[in-house]
Design brief:
Helices cover 83% and strands 0% of the residues. It has 145 residues and is mostly helical. Helix 1 packs antiparallel against helix 2 and helix 2 runs antiparallel to helix 3. The longest helix is centred in the N-terminal third of the chain and has 27 residues.
Length: 145
Protein backbone atom coordinates (compact mmCIF):
# COMPACT_ATOMS: atom_id res chain seq x y z
CA UNK A 1 0.00 0.00 0.00
CA UNK A 2 2.83 2.41 0.82
CA UNK A 3 4.53 1.69 -2.52
CA UNK A 4 1.33 2.70 -4.30
CA UNK A 5 1.23 5.85 -2.15
CA UNK A 6 4.82 6.72 -3.09
CA UNK A 7 4.19 6.03 -6.78
CA UNK A 8 1.00 8.10 -6.92
CA UNK A 9 2.69 10.93 -5.00
CA UNK A 10 5.67 10.92 -7.34
CA UNK A 11 3.55 10.79 -10.51
CA UNK A 12 1.18 13.50 -9.33
CA UNK A 13 4.12 15.73 -8.43
CA UNK A 14 5.77 15.16 -11.80
CA UNK A 15 2.55 15.85 -13.71
CA UNK A 16 1.81 18.99 -11.69
CA UNK A 17 5.36 20.30 -12.09
CA UNK A 18 5.50 19.58 -15.82
CA UNK A 19 2.04 21.06 -16.31
CA UNK A 20 3.08 24.22 -14.48
CA UNK A 21 6.24 24.44 -16.57
CA UNK A 22 4.24 23.91 -19.78
CA UNK A 23 1.78 26.62 -18.65
CA UNK A 24 4.62 29.09 -18.03
CA UNK A 25 6.05 28.33 -21.48
CA UNK A 26 2.56 28.47 -23.08
CA UNK A 27 3.00 24.98 -24.53
CA UNK A 28 0.01 22.75 -25.35
CA UNK A 29 -1.01 20.06 -22.88
CA UNK A 30 -0.39 22.12 -19.76
CA UNK A 31 -3.97 22.07 -18.53
CA UNK A 32 -4.30 18.29 -18.96
CA UNK A 33 -1.09 17.63 -17.01
CA UNK A 34 -2.00 20.02 -14.20
CA UNK A 35 -5.47 18.53 -13.85
CA UNK A 36 -4.15 14.95 -13.94
CA UNK A 37 -1.45 15.69 -11.39
CA UNK A 38 -3.55 17.71 -9.00
CA UNK A 39 -6.63 15.50 -9.12
CA UNK A 40 -4.57 12.33 -8.66
CA UNK A 41 -2.96 14.00 -5.65
CA UNK A 42 -6.26 15.18 -4.23
CA UNK A 43 -8.40 12.11 -4.93
CA UNK A 44 -5.94 9.19 -4.88
CA UNK A 45 -2.91 10.23 -2.82
CA UNK A 46 -4.71 11.97 0.04
CA UNK A 47 -7.38 9.24 0.54
CA UNK A 48 -4.62 6.61 0.56
CA UNK A 49 -2.73 8.71 3.10
CA UNK A 50 -5.86 8.94 5.29
CA UNK A 51 -6.26 5.16 5.08
CA UNK A 52 -2.63 4.46 6.00
CA UNK A 53 -2.59 7.04 8.82
CA UNK A 54 -5.79 5.61 10.29
CA UNK A 55 -4.11 2.21 10.53
CA UNK A 56 -1.05 3.68 12.28
CA UNK A 57 -2.89 5.76 14.90
CA UNK A 58 -4.48 4.08 17.91
CA UNK A 59 -6.72 6.87 19.19
CA UNK A 60 -10.07 7.31 17.45
CA UNK A 61 -10.03 11.09 17.87
CA UNK A 62 -6.58 11.29 16.24
CA UNK A 63 -7.93 9.37 13.24
CA UNK A 64 -10.76 11.88 13.04
CA UNK A 65 -8.33 14.82 13.27
CA UNK A 66 -6.07 13.42 10.53
CA UNK A 67 -9.07 12.80 8.30
CA UNK A 68 -10.33 16.37 8.74
CA UNK A 69 -6.89 17.83 8.04
CA UNK A 70 -6.31 15.81 4.93
CA UNK A 71 -9.82 16.50 3.66
CA UNK A 72 -9.18 20.22 4.10
CA UNK A 73 -5.93 19.75 2.18
CA UNK A 74 -7.92 18.14 -0.61
CA UNK A 75 -10.37 21.05 -0.63
CA UNK A 76 -7.51 23.53 -0.81
CA UNK A 77 -5.83 21.61 -3.63
CA UNK A 78 -9.07 21.50 -5.61
CA UNK A 79 -9.47 25.23 -4.98
CA UNK A 80 -5.96 25.82 -6.34
CA UNK A 81 -6.82 23.83 -9.45
CA UNK A 82 -10.03 25.80 -9.93
CA UNK A 83 -8.14 29.09 -9.49
CA UNK A 84 -5.38 28.08 -11.89
CA UNK A 85 -7.86 26.92 -14.53
CA UNK A 86 -10.12 29.99 -14.02
CA UNK A 87 -13.11 27.84 -13.05
CA UNK A 88 -15.93 29.17 -10.85
CA UNK A 89 -16.06 28.62 -7.07
CA UNK A 90 -12.27 28.67 -6.67
CA UNK A 91 -12.28 31.43 -4.07
CA UNK A 92 -15.10 29.81 -2.10
CA UNK A 93 -13.27 26.46 -1.96
CA UNK A 94 -9.94 27.99 -1.01
CA UNK A 95 -11.24 30.52 1.49
CA UNK A 96 -13.56 28.08 3.27
CA UNK A 97 -10.84 25.43 3.56
CA UNK A 98 -8.35 27.95 4.97
CA UNK A 99 -10.86 29.37 7.47
CA UNK A 100 -11.92 25.91 8.66
CA UNK A 101 -8.26 24.90 8.88
CA UNK A 102 -7.26 27.94 10.96
CA UNK A 103 -10.24 28.20 13.27
CA UNK A 104 -11.53 24.61 13.60
CA UNK A 105 -8.81 22.12 12.70
CA UNK A 106 -5.82 23.71 14.45
CA UNK A 107 -7.65 24.20 17.80
CA UNK A 108 -8.94 20.60 17.64
CA UNK A 109 -5.45 19.35 16.82
CA UNK A 110 -3.92 21.38 19.64
CA UNK A 111 -6.48 20.32 22.26
CA UNK A 112 -6.35 16.64 21.34
CA UNK A 113 -2.57 16.33 21.45
CA UNK A 114 -1.50 18.87 24.08
CA UNK A 115 -2.82 16.68 26.90
CA UNK A 116 -0.24 13.96 26.20
CA UNK A 117 3.09 14.80 27.77
CA UNK A 118 5.19 13.06 25.08
CA UNK A 119 3.52 15.12 22.33
CA UNK A 120 3.35 18.50 24.07
CA UNK A 121 6.41 20.19 22.50
CA UNK A 122 5.74 18.91 18.96
CA UNK A 123 2.08 19.90 19.28
CA UNK A 124 2.96 23.49 20.16
CA UNK A 125 5.50 23.80 17.34
CA UNK A 126 3.23 22.15 14.75
CA UNK A 127 0.26 24.29 15.77
CA UNK A 128 2.24 27.53 15.51
CA UNK A 129 3.65 26.56 12.09
CA UNK A 130 0.24 25.47 10.77
CA UNK A 131 -1.45 28.64 12.00
CA UNK A 132 1.30 30.78 10.49
CA UNK A 133 0.98 29.14 7.08
CA UNK A 134 -2.81 29.29 7.24
CA UNK A 135 -2.68 32.96 8.17
CA UNK A 136 -0.31 33.76 5.31
CA UNK A 137 -2.64 31.99 2.87
CA UNK A 138 -5.59 33.89 4.31
CA UNK A 139 -3.73 37.18 3.92
CA UNK A 140 -3.44 36.56 0.17
CA UNK A 141 -7.19 37.04 -0.31
CA UNK A 142 -8.72 40.39 -1.12
CA UNK A 143 -11.78 40.43 1.12
CA UNK A 144 -12.82 44.00 0.37
CA UNK A 145 -14.93 43.20 -2.70
Amino acid sequence: MKKILYLVGLLSTIFTFLGSFFKIMHWPGAAVMIIMGAFSFAFIFIPLLIFIKSKEVNFLFDKFIYSIGLTLGTMLMVGFIFKLMHWPWATVLMLSSILIFNFVYIPLYFISRFKREELKFNTIVNSVVMFSFGSVLLALFDLTA
